[in-house]
């Protein structure tokens, strides 16, 4: 058994075809087919079912994939640690984050790539739950999370605050601050982009219950609905986009800060690239106090 065989099996699983696997590995289709056939012959097992529309793994092939992926991860880490010992940070670094965190993340990625051009950085965007799943399944090595996470290794990344977003002509739009109770008479809009657990905790801490009248998938849809006076919402300041016409963003009373953390499965499991990326983050993270502040102002 050799690494080429394991890489071919993993690539076919990810791509769903020999052609796609060859493109992922940057080798010929015949090389992928040869690696798969030799692995099956060596094990005496059928691992891949060839179909007209592509390939799929057999049940035993699917059971072997996590072990193949783990073996390849250790081999890659061996090479990365050896290179780091020689003064060169290499490899691939996957980072997952929910949409509002991507307002800050690119500036750090730009600085990291300037310092370590041999590292390939892959950014993934998803919901809070998706980011947590990606960390657990090692789809990404680092992920942006919120709140206390004793189950993960975390470092402070960024701090912002929750704001009430209201139609520009709302009676409370000109107030210096509003309470959550002030918003109870208006239909509440909730975005599926994330933050629902934090919002529920926030409402609970102030003796209120969160009762959304409307649920939407994206923050852009939510803000469009606020503009059209469909309802109001509470969102992190980082989630505000540059277009502010028709919307008033009002601080909460008392303030409701939000802390973003960069998380990994464990400190011992960090690759040289992940360790190097974490050194680009200032102690305590960056604090974004103004709703209009953008990632370009962070570094």
From TrEMBL:
GO CC term, one of those recorded: cytosol
Residues annotated as domain HTH lysR-type: 1-58
Keyword Ligase: no
The keyword Phosphoprotein is annotated on this UniProt entry: no
Record family assignment: Belongs to the LysR transcriptional regulatory family.
Name recorded for this polypeptide: DNA-binding transcriptional LysR family regulator
Xref: SUPFAM superfamilies: Periplasmic binding protein-like II, Winged helix' DNA-binding domain
UniProt organism field: Thermomonospora cellulosilytica
Keyword list, A-Z: DNA-binding, Transcription, Transcription regulation
Alphabetical list of PANTHER family matching this protein: HTH-TYPE TRANSCRIPTIONAL REGULATOR CZCR (PTHR30419:SF24), HTH-TYPE TRANSCRIPTIONAL REGULATOR YBHD (PTHR30419)
Highest taxon above the source species: Bacteria
Entries under InterPro entries matching the protein: HTH-type_LysR_regulators, LysR_HTH_N, LysR_subst-bd, WH-like_DNA-bd_sf, WH_DNA-bd_sf
Gene Ontology molecular-function annotations: DNA binding; DNA-binding transcription factor activity
